[in-house]
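Table S7 (text form). Paired inputs.
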Amino acid sequence: MTKPSPFSVRGRRALMAMRDDRDISIVRRQLSRLGMAVTEHDPSVAPPAAETIDVIVMDTDSIPIKSDAVVAWKIGVPIIALIGTETPSRLKWLLDLQPASFLIKPLRSAGLYTALVVAFDAAQRRIDEAAHLERLEDRVRSRRIVFAAVLQIMGGHGLSEPEAFTLIRQTAMRHRTTVEQLSAEIIASGGMPNRTPRTA
């Protein structure tokens, strides 16, 4: 599946969680010029489902500093934070929110496209990192299964660790399966399973 380019924003859907009429006018005008679909939303109300949004443009000054508000807005959609108040408490709240990009208020008539590109790129990187981490965790889980199967074969056949692993690997190759799958079967059956070799 081809990943969307962060530079391509036309047709994407933006949710504006803002209250200031001037800021709303500036952001709406820029998003419309970029060809994005725009929806306005009350910042005090929890956002809609993530499937309906590609990015959230949020005036963080319009939301009270509450931890539950942070949780409500963490829906897996990149957030562009509009920042006007730079107090430590507000910035801590902002860090908890983990925005993908930001703009400093007062807003200007430029800069939103850059914030969008940075936000979409950061969001894609987070997705890639999560997928990479999941693959690593799968690999660790698989190693544990293989190691347990090796110990079982060592005990059952009186083999050394390298010999037991070689037996599992060769058996897996002969039956055209993976070492991990065969190891799971060894653990489930309590020994080397009786399998009929597959034919081409």
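Next pair, protein 2 of 2.
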Amino acid sequence: MTGAPKDKTAAKPAKAAAAKAANGNGNGNGNGQALARYEIRLSGLGGQGILTMGKLLGQALAIGHSYYVTQTQSYGPEARGGASRADLVVSSEPISYPKTEYLDLLVALSQEAAASYYSYLKPRGALLIDADLVRQSPSSVALALPFTRLAREKVGVPQATNVVALGAVAYLLPFARIEAMRKSLKESLPEKIRDANIKALNLGYQEAKKRLGEPIALPDPDGDDDIQAARMDLTEIMTED
């Protein structure tokens, strides 16, 4: 089967609304932190668990933190080795447009992903890469950890690379709580692989805390006027598709 990557725009307006009603506080997030539109892209190759990573992160932010979250995903026709990505938009308020436009955080687990998507990152956005798989970073200020090597050598399960990276993301996002990520894993994964993945999540979190410095600073909602203007233009174009 051949063809262009499939765009699975399964915009999933989160179960956040239900969770929001359930917690009764009405402040839009479980961490007490209001959040303007925040865009994340998880990217790599088929077989690295990118789509699962997106599902786990989206579920944790929606259910565990009561944010509004949309998730879209795209992958190539190949079962393994083709381009794969999962995009999330996170906000304390209802999301008017579900697709990502200008990324606040780009996670790249392959050289191809880093090269392809870096231009979508905001000027003050953060790039997180697999240090072994992205040999030529498009930015000198990238955050890097050897996710695949950590999964193989410390967890003993190379397939847990995506969850090691998820642990690092949980640390870097200042509005995320690691407890919600653990709960998302426990509720989503089969029991036989649960312990290994919890170990991978904790490992990624601790390695990021040890090696990557402080969590990412949230963007100033009043400091990106040019981007906001461009976003309005882009939205107008894309609604015509």
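The radius of gyration is 17 Å.
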